[in-house]
Amino acid sequence: MKQRPVHILMSVIFSLLWLMSSPVQSADRAVIANQRAVAPASDMHSRVYQTVLQYVEGQTQGYPGKVNIEIQPLDSRIRIAECGLMEGFTVQGARLWGKTHIGVRCLQSETKPWTLYVQADVQVWGEYAVTGLPVSQGSPVQTTDVVMQSGDLSKLPAGIITDVSMLDGKQAALNLPLGTVLRPELLKAIPVIRQGQTVQLNSRGDGFVITADGTAMQTANVGQVVDVKVSSGQIIKGVAQSSGKVDVRF
Question: How far apart are the C-alpha atoms of 219 and 36, rounded to whole Å?
Fold first, then answer.
């Protein structure tokens, strides 16, 4: 009879332990189910990284110089739902040049499709032209007037000159001090024909060429249309050539 209280006490303890264990097991199941719906962060983060890298590599083909892509990793605490197919994209008007954001959207998901943005720095290392000596306004810019320097083109003004052949037929639009990074807006075409100049007019047709002299009625650059007045007083339109002649085609 003295042992009966001990049995009662043990029965109460086991009952309490069973009641305490039930919620814990339910909570554990909820966590596991949630983990099945969301892929491990490391795996999905890696796929997002590769999607961004492949997209930028494809979009930057043909860039001048060597392209270096730095992608900022996502916060490891960010969890991303499993996705069967994802693609990279950029916001309309955005440029893959310098610091930018790349979008990644999920196209196939068991849950709701998602979109996120990843920070990236697209560096383009190459050569660019700078003036090796001062060039006065109106003076032709020749290859001997410039030197090529190396650097990250994405850190420089847009449209810089990376090929000296782009200087052919150009003159300084304003005074260019030593060390000026050359851009198209700093240059202008050198006229090949000037108003009042006597020019040769070549009239071309199928199987024939007629040559005559005339007077240019305006200044023109290569490829521009110019009016030429011939000896009869007639005005003939033609296209200015780099040779200083004017071509008329029938």
Answer: 75
